């Protein structure tokens, strides 16, 4: 009789348990940091970088600001500027490294046989085709003075061999071995330099705002732009 009562009890208990609704528990899938990075909320595979203009995906734990989103570093994509506006390009990159020190700004040109108004997106594709993480310059200044964002500002660039760990690369579109930079490009370069010097507490000078040729054996940024670097330094100093 006791055995029967026990069986009846267990049978009834099983029925109650079967009728319960067990809530679904979401367990986040672990992602290999080496194979993924997040750019403005968009997942970029290190095997397949993409340019992405869509909405940010939701995050299960917290909401990141629209211009600051990464799981493994402190890449600053939307630093506010006082003297200039930055045209966002939303480029996708392979793996990048944080830059720990910033004490120089390096001026470049496109050079070669190219004197046209090249965009950051086009340079980005050139550099990816070389096997790089993406565009090596942090900013590119178009002929009308528009400043386009290149590599994220707080990451190590790829623009001066042996000097990338402490410098920011600014490319001014054109070939200034043969032609003159526009006035709009010089004004934008000075305003950008002033904001970057303020941001990183750099004193604008001929030692801190330099041409590529000051750090390497090269004709870059071309004589016609190089001779304007003192003007850029002075204008930047006046704006800081």
Describe this structure as you would to a colleague.
The structure is a single chain. Mean pLDDT is 76; it is low at 13-75. Helices cover 25% and strands 13% of the residues. The N and C termini lie far apart (94 Å). The chain has a domain at 81-239: 3-Layer(aba) Sandwich (Lysozyme-like), CATH 3.40.80. It has five helices and eight strands. The protein is globular, with a radius of gyration of 26 Å. A six-stranded mixed β-sheet has the order 3-6-5-7-4-8, with helices on one face. Strands 1-2 form a two-stranded antiparallel sheet. The chain has 240 residues and is α/β, with parallel strands linked by helices.
Q: Which key phrases capture this entry?
A:
globular, two-stranded antiparallel sheet, single chain, alpha/beta, Lysozyme-like, six-stranded mixed beta sheet, 13% strand
Summarize the structure.
The protein is 25% helix and 13% strand. The chain is of the alpha/beta class and 240 residues long.
How does the SSE layout of this entry go?
Blueprint: H1 2-19, E1 36-39, E2 42-45, E3 86-87, E4 104-109, H2 120-129, E5 139-141, E6 147-149, E7 167-172, H3 183-200, E8 209-211, H4 223-226, H5 229-239
Parallel strand pairs: 3-6, 4-7, 4-8, 5-7
Antiparallel strand pairs: 1-2, 5-6
Helix pairs in contact: 3-5
